[in-house]
Design brief:
The protein is about 45% helix and about 0% strand. By secondary structure, it is mainly α. It has one domain. Helix 1 packs across helix 2. The relative contact order is 0.19.
Amino acid sequence: LEQKGVRTEVLTVSSGPEYEQAVSRVKEKMGPIGGVIHAAGAVDLDHPAFIRKTREQMMPVLEPKTDGLDLLYQALHK
């Protein structure tokens, strides 16, 4: 992406205030945010393939993704 002129910022955040602070810092540093790659999730080395996971094994992997996406959405729309 950067070779194409896209400016990127890699962030590790886990709470609403952290998302809000990160979005604010990025906007101050780079201007308007034109896109987001949201790659949150937990790694389960005992059961790495989604297709082989039970519902109970999937929840700890999906919760950071869905919770984080909601927090990111809220931070971007403030």
